[in-house]
Amino acid sequence: MIIAELTHRSLEVAFVVELCGEVRGRTITLDARWVGRDLHVLLYGGDRSHIGAVSIAHLSPSAAETGRVSVSVSTISLPGHKDYVLSRDISERLAKEIGVTVVAVVGIHLDRASQDDIRQIIATVDALVEDLTSSYLQS
Fold first, then answer.
1. What is the C-alpha to C-alpha distance for residues 83 and 42, in angstroms, rounded to an integer?
2. Cβ atoms within 10 A of the Cβ of 114, count?
3. CATH code where residue 108 lies
């Protein structure tokens, strides 16, 4: 659901979105907003929201092919946290699809998560990112 679309005093549009999904009866939330021309995505939920990993993706000229653009991603993860898998994927995917620098902060925790729970989290996050991309492209 789009929470707000506001005109900033500097005439930039602040694209603010909050999207929610559910896994095992727990809410997974994706918040996104523009920070200047860059996109900040916060993904959290489950039994205990937290910050487990942060990734930043940006476009750069390809070293291999002239005229081609590639995406570089840097990730920081807390020890023992697997959130980096999602933060890296989200930031890279959105940078490619939207063409901007993206920072993704992720912290999802489900107590005693099974392999099926993990697959459901990944599918839910994929759908949320797809909804975000669609919302942006339609605005």
1. 12
2. 10
3. 3.30.230.90
Name, of 3-17, 44-58, 65-79, the range with top average pLDDT: 44-58
| E strand spans, the chain | 2-7, 13-23, 26-35, 38-46, 53-61, 69-77, 102-109
Distance CA 30, CA 86 (A): 12
- CA gap 91, 58 in Å, rounded: 8
Sign of torsion, CA 33 23 123 82? positive
Instruction: Provide the domain limits for residue 62.
Output: 2-138
How far apart (Å, rounded) are the C-alpha atoms in residues 83 and 81? 6
pLDDT at 54: 98
**Two tokens, residue 33:** 């907003």
pLDDT in tens, 122-132: 999 999 999 99
Is the pLDDT score of 5 beyond 70? no
Round to whole Å and give the CA distance between 18 and 34: 13
Q: CA torsion sign, 134 to 16 to 87 to 120?
A: negative
pTM: 0.85
